[in-house]
């Protein structure tokens, strides 16, 4: 079994952008579960000679309609099945109530969580990180998915124990 890494977080923080950066140019799409493409998408990535599976999930919210509930269930299942979790937050918007809600959910799992502060291009990392450290996750990584900054170092850290 390849190491499996789930990407979770609220909508619009850059989960799919990160997924695409990590899986692109590898003919990466392993599976798009029929009818569930917005919920869970599995791709293949590689760091050095180490291949891994990446699972992109739909955004977690506090909404409780049918679609939101299904997306949340899919994300929780992805977390359950993963070896590592990337909890992505938006460094520009800062910590939100939804982030706190997701953090609360994540604390219920034994899976190691990496907090990933995205959209930090052009920002001073000391300033960006202060609020997010309150969530209590360790390690914390600052990246820019769209500018492809810090992404390599992130995956080296995530996979170092394999
Ligand atoms: P998702 O809903 O979490 O999957 O987020 P998406 O990957 O769809 O990205 C949401 C928006 O954030 C898009 O407009 C992206 O272009 C933008 N975005 C993603 N990564 C970055 C980043 O590193 N920096 C900035 N400034 N924008 C980003
Ligand atoms: Mg997405």
Plain-language structure description:
The chain is built from 5 helices and 7 strands; from the N terminus they run βαβββαβαβαβα. Strands 2-3-4-1-5-6-7 form a 7-stranded mixed β-sheet, with helices on both faces. It has helices spanning 15-23, 66-81, 97-106, 125-133, 151-158, and strands at residues 4-8, 29-32, 40-47, 50-57, 84-90, 113-118, 140-142. Helix content is 32%, strand content 25%. With 162 residues, the chain is α/β, with parallel strands linked by helices. Residues 30-37 have low confidence and may be disordered. Strand 6, helix 4 and strand 7 form a beta-alpha-beta unit. The longest helix has 16 residues, at 66-81. It starts with a strand and ends with a helix. It has a single domain, classed as Rossmann fold. It binds guanosine-5'-diphosphate and magnesium ion.
Question: What do we call the CATH homologous superfamily?
Answer: P-loop containing nucleotide triphosphate hydrolases
Ligands bound to this protein structure: guanosine-5'-diphosphate, magnesium ion
Helix and strand content put the structural class at alpha/beta
Stretches where pLDDT is under 50 for at least 5 consecutive residues are 30-37
Overall, the morphology is globular
Number of helical segments with 4 or more residues = 5
Average pLDDT:
89
| Share of helix, binned | 25-40%
Please give the number of β-strands. 7
What characterizes the major β-sheet?
7 strands, mixed
Ends apart, CA distance between termini: 12 Å
CATH class: Alpha Beta
Query: Helix and strand string, N-terminal first?
Result: EHEEEHEHEHEH
C-alpha Rg (nearest Å) = 15 Å
Tell me the strand percentage band.
Answer: 25-35%
Our count of domains comes out at 1
């Amino acid at each position: 079994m390849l190491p499996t890494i789930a990407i979770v977080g609220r909508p619009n923080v850059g989960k799919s952008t990160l997924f695409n950066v990590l899986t692109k140019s590898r003919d990466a799409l392993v599976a798009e579960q029929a009818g569930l493409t917005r919920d869970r998408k599995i791709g293949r990535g590689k760091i050095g000679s180490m291949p891994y599976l990446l699972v992109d999930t739909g955004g977690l919210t506090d909404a409780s309609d049918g679609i939101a509930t299904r997306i949340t269930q899919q994300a929780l299942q992805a977390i359950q099945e993963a070896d590592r979790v990337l909890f992505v937050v938006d460094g520009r918007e800062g910590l939100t109530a939804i982030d706190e809600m997701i953090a609360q959910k994540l604390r219920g799992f034994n899976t190691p969580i990496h907090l990933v502060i995205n959209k930090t291009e052009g920002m001073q990392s000391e300033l960006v990180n202060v609020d997010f450290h309150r969530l209590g996750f360790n390690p914390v990584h600052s990246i820019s998915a769209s500018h492809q900054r810090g992404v390599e170092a992130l995956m080296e850290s995530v996979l170092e124990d394999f």
